[in-house]
From TrEMBL:
Keywords: ATP-binding, Cell inner membrane, Cell membrane, Membrane, Molybdenum, Nucleotide-binding, Translocase, Transport. It comes from Marinomonas transparens. Pfam families: ABC_tran (PF00005), TOBE (PF03459). Residues 301-367 form the Mop domain. GO terms for molecular function: ABC-type transporter activity; ATP binding; ATP hydrolysis activity; molybdate ion transmembrane transporter activity. SMART domains: AAA. The keyword GTP-binding does not apply. GO terms for cellular component: membrane. This is Molybdenum ABC transporter ATP-binding protein. SUPFAM superfamilies: MOP-like, P-loop containing nucleoside triphosphate hydrolases. Residues 10-242 form the ABC transporter domain.
Length: 367
């Protein structure tokens, strides 16, 4: 069962219709890099969960083909049952065994783990999810966020080659979401297991995903690296009122007196509120288009700390709100979006290739 042509990626070709009456059909042909975090993003009912369940073998797509690296999971005449697919699955609700403690739940996974393909150790998982203090508790003694952290730990201890996560934060309130998001970020950044992450929250996807696949009505409408997609005009993302870009760089300076960090990218830098990052860390900052203003010259008499030298690359009128335009500027090769009024664009006589200063308030930069 070896297909020599496919390496290091997940190839999924699926068609699925639940019934004629439902009006929904999934029709996708995707090649996903078997590395990092790929988010399946899209509105409710777009087919994200159906896609994930097909990959897991929990749902059948009779004409479908699925293979991971050189291994066929499904073809016209072959079907690998779910329990033989090297996957971990995290659902919306943590589905822990209620009669077992957190640690007994983990031991259950360890017994079923793929021993020949160990990727992560028990100690690493416990540290990553910070669950040492709650290992002796039963699920009903844990908060929703703690239960979900144990459920993620259990999925990791299966030693999966692919981790499937279906809206793991959807069942949690906003406070618990904020509590668990940093753990997911750690998992996504540090863990060597590729992740398929389903969400309809743009915020979550921006924080976690390296790649994005956007589904609508069962079809793939956009896909690519998160950073590229967010920085491109004409996508569904540039039409969001809170359209953002991600800028990656290295922490070069920190001034604890002001609790600020400096992130260098190319020959420029962005100053932002200090968080947990350390000197030398690679960080990814989110800059919302509404927090970027454009100016013809550099002003040194304002409170704004970030003044980047940029060049106008593209512009898009807001179809919903004619008083606004989205301007894509490049800071060297890094795209930044600025949502400004059409009047300002007119007054500045903006045109492609024009040199400008992009101003970003430090307090508005999200790390
Ligand atoms: N077992 C089923 N039988 C019939 N129709 C189904 C079944 N499961 C899902 N559907 C339908 O398939 C479509 C896609 O559902 P799916 O759950 O995959 O979407 P989703 O993008 O994950 O949505 P959400 O974000 O709300 O979870 C929906 O119209 C849904 O009603």
């Amino acid at each position: 069962m070896v297909n020599r042509q496919s390496t290091n990626r997940l190839e999924v070709k699926l068609t699925k219709q639940y019934s004629e009456q439902s009006g929904f059909s999934l029709d996708v042909d995707l090649h996903i890099a078997h590395t990092g975090v790929t988010a399946l993003f899209g509105p409710s009912g777009s087919g994200k969960t159906t896609f994930l369940r097909c990959v897991a073998g929990l749902e059948r797509s009779p004409q479908g083909t699925i293979n991971l690296n050189n291994e066929i999971w499904q073809s016209r005449d072959f079907w690998l049952p779910t329990h033989q697919r090297p996957i971990g699955y995290v659902f919306q609700e943590a589905s822990l065994f209620p009669h077992l403690t957190a640690d007994e739940n983990l031991q259950f996974a360890i017994k079923r783990a793929n021993k020949s393909h160990a990727i992560i150790t028990y100690d690493e998982v416990i540290a990553l999810m910070n669950i040492e203090p709650i290992l002796s508790q039963y699920p009903q003694q844990l908060s929703g966020g703690e239960r979900q952290r144990v459920a993620i730990a259990r999925a990791l201890l299966i030693q999966p080659q692919l981790l499937l996560m279906d809206e793991p934060l959807a069942g949690l309130d906003d406070v618990l979401k904020q509590e668990i998001l940093p753990y997911l970020e750690q998992l996504c950044r540090r863990c060597r297991i590729p992740i398929l992450y389903v969400s309809h929250s743009l915020d979550e996807v921006i924080r976690l995903a390296d790649y994005m696949v956007v589904l609508n009505k069962g079809k793939v409408v956009e896909q690519g690296e998160t950073q590229n997609l967010l920085g491109t005009l004409g996508t569904s993302f540039s039409k969001y009122q809170d359209a953002s870009v991600l800028i990656s760089g290295t922490v070069e300076k920190q001034e604890s007196q002001w609790t600020l960090s400096w992130m260098n990218f190319g020959s420029q830098h962005i100053v932002f509120k200090q968080g947990n990052e350390q000197l030398g860390d690679t960080v990814r900052l989110r800059v919302q288009s509404k927090d970027v203003s454009l100016s013809l010259s550099k002003h040194n008499d304002s409170s704004i700390l970030n003044k980047l030298s940029v060049v106008v690359d593209d512009m898009e009128e807001d179809q919903q709100d004619p008083s606004m335009v989205m301007v894509r500027v490049l800071a060297e090769s890094t795209p930044i979006l600025a949502r400004i009024t059409s009047l300002s664009a007119h007054n500045l006589k903006l045109k492609k290739g024009q040199s400008l200063i992009a101003q970003i308030k430090s307090v508005a930069v999200l790390s």
